[in-house]
Amino acid sequence: QEKSSCLSAALFGEDCEISRDQLYELLKFAALGKCHNASQPSWCRIYRQSHLAGVVVIVLPEMSQLHFYQFYLQFKHLRKVFRHRFTLTPSANFLASLYGEGANRKLQNTAQGLTSTISKSSDLQCDPIFQKYGGKKHGLTSYILTSEELNKYDYPIKGSPRWKGFVCTGCDKQRTDSSPLFGLDCEMCLTAKGNEVTHVSLVDAQGQCLLNELVRPQSEVVNYRTSFSGITEEMLLPVKTSLSDIQTRLKKILPRDAVLVGHSLNNDLQALEMIHPSVIDTSLLFARTESRRFKLKFLAKAVLGKEIQCEEMVGHDPAEDARTALELAQFFIEQGPAKVAELNLEMLLRAENLAKVSKKKDALQPRGCRVQQQLNEPPHLSKPCFLECLQVTGQKPLLLGRQELDSSGLCQSNLSTSNKQILQKALEDVPLSTFSIIQFSLGPENTSSRLLAELCEKVGSKLTDMLIIYAGPFEENFCLKSVKKKFGRCGPIQSLTVVTETYQPYVCIQYEVLEAAQLAVESLNGAEVAGSCIKVQRPVTAAMLDCDVLIKELELDVENEGVIYVAGLKQSITEKDLQEEFSQLKDLEMLFLPKDLQSAKHRNCCFLKFQKSQSAVDALEVINGWTLRGSKLRSRNALASGHLWRWIWQMNCSNGKQRENIFYKKMQQLPDCEQDLKKKVKKLDSHIQKLYRSLQNNTLCVVLFPGVNSTYGSQSGLGLMGIKGDRGRSAC
């Protein structure tokens, strides 16, 4: 069965705001894996990145999260496909920040016409790795040292008089490409006998440590070599484990077809006084010219993007070194020699050495001279963006757009090109590219500052209306406190006022969350409150006529799948208390206890996220009517559990209770524009759907509403992402 990639992101409640740097972090790792210092993003995780079929980024310029929720019903495909969503802060030059430093320099001369591709420039034919192994991928057996190589590179060999007395591991079964790999590394001290092993580590193919032991040397230690070995006299004083004990344990752990991986492993096997027939030596695997070898520390950083043997550590960690050598071998086998050759390690090493020399030279100069030299020198080139790194690895990014991306020339302007033509071009070219950026646009006439202001007011008004309920009628002298208590059990109340314009008094309640207002409508309509049988309803305005449809679609939104809302909590309860109380609920994955974003106080509600939808349904039955520390709980399906919750809260804070429906008059002024925009958004959603359907499984797709900066204020952006074919959660 083919392995698939999957994506995990804890984008829940207050953790849904993502910076440009964090987005860049995700795209860089998705495109490059562990190459070029790319590491797993800090805010989400891609599992089995090497199995990704490609990365597709769809950019909708001059659109924000405001557009997504104003035209929520029209974005039918987007809201049903992409599970993970996050808020973006608007940027003046969005695409430049997306590419990272150095993108302008590289892409300025390569953008031509509608598409812009970066071609492979490195000459692989001269690379020693390419010359030795060719360009095709091979199984692990192709990289096991031959008998001649074992002899040439001073490995202990069975039957040789030189290695008389050495112990064989007993691993005599024939190796195949599915034989297990084990990473091995030792640290040695200098004794009267020579180099003796004092610390040995063995890790399996998953990086799990199977053996990590200090060893007592047979002879007196002459030099502990602490700066390299990390061994001190005090560490060895209580150690009883002997070399023969380690040999016995290794023979017991290793299966008969085991392949050992290490960096200059001949030194380790000599110190262990052991013979093993099947070895992959990463110092030889990543060959240099004239039989020179790269250091493990350099390869770890250049190939895997990880720092090892750090200066602040005393000595080397053999478990870390064993794991690193193993990961290097796995990378080589999975990616193939051509991909490794494309890293251009020799060039990277030269650049690193030049930087070190320059740093030492600067350190020797007086401070004043250094300042003057910096003033005289031209500015350094910025760090390469990940698109430049893609060029080095031979990948060809694809850029498609219908308008000028920015003044730096990231893509050639082509204003005559329509979204339909871009879609057709994308359907043809995206399958041929491992990284694509597609830009669809509604056109400048539909993204003007004036229209943005209209949309902002309209969405704000509609959200406010959805958070408000009217309850009544009540008796003249009803108890307002009891009404507030009853309705407060549905969720946090922002404001409560008495309506006196009616024959009998009503109460207008504005909640902080959508779920609370909906829970009040569902559970208290027709109930007896403060001595009166009341009706609970939302405001009746033109904008609210489709409220029931919108509520239903929010419930079905893939972002709210497996998430429930719980109200009626006492404000004194803590998140730790809730974790303990709800621990009995099956498949509970995450708990979010909202806070007032200004006072940081907990609200009287929470959201529970479950790994399975059915577990959420079961939890609803259990929680409804459940009494928690004297408080009766109420629950329902979530409507705005993710980034929408935070956005609604911020809009509430800025708008307050601005309930005059002045926008209805303004809407009458632009009916044709409004309807035309709805049609265009619906068509845009259809284009994205067609493009998404054409993608291979295991393709990471990210849709970005960059956000807007205008004279009428800024609007946050929105990101939606998912891996096609991935229906799993963080457990994958």
What does this entry look like structurally?
This protein is of the alpha+beta class and 732 residues long. Among the domains are: 6-98 and 385-444 and 674-724, no CATH class; 138-335, Ribonuclease H-like superfamily/Ribonuclease H (Nucleotidyltransferase, domain 5), CATH 3.30.420; 561-638, Alpha-Beta Plaits, CATH 3.30.70.330. It has 28 helices and 33 strands. The chain has a nine-stranded mixed sheet with strand order 2-5-33-30-4-17-16-7-6. Strands 9, 10, 11, 12, 13 and 15 form a six-stranded mixed sheet that branches. It has a four-stranded antiparallel sheet with strand order 19-20-18-23. Strand 9 (181-191) and strand 10 form a beta hairpin. The longest helix is centred in the last third of the chain and has 24 residues, at 671-694. Mean pLDDT is 81; it is low at 101-122, 373-383, 404-416 and 656-671. GO terms for molecular function: exonuclease activity; RNA binding. Keywords: Exonuclease, Hydrolase, Nuclease, RNA-binding. This is REXO5 exonuclease. It holds the Pfam family RNase_T.
Topology:
Blueprint: E1 6-9, E2 17-18, H1 20-32, E3 44-47, E4 54-59, H2 65-70, H3 76-81, E5 84-88, H4 94-99, H5 103-107, E6 111-112, E7 115-117, H6 128-133, H7 147-152, E8 167-168, E9 181-191, E10 194-203, E11 209-214, E12 221-223, H8 226-229, H9 233-236, H10 243-253, E13 259-262, H11 265-272, E14 274-275, E15 279-281, H12 282-285, H13 296-304, H14 318-335, H15 337-342, H16 345-364, H17 367-376, H18 386-392, E16 398-400, H19 419-429, E17 435-439, H20 449-467, E18 468-472, H21 480-488, E19 493-499, E20 506-511, H22 514-524, E21 528-529, E22 532-533, E23 535-537, H23 547-556, E24 563-567, H24 575-581, E25 588-592, E26 605-610, H25 613-623, E27 627-628, E28 631-632, E29 634-637, H26 643-655, H27 663-669, H28 671-694, E30 699-705, E31 708-710, E32 713-715, E33 717-723
Parallel strand pairs: 2-5, 4-17, 4-30, 8-14, 9-13, 13-15, 16-17
Antiparallel strand pairs: 1-3, 5-33, 6-7, 7-16, 9-10, 9-12, 10-11, 18-20, 18-23, 19-20, 21-22, 24-26, 24-29, 25-26, 27-28, 30-33, 31-32
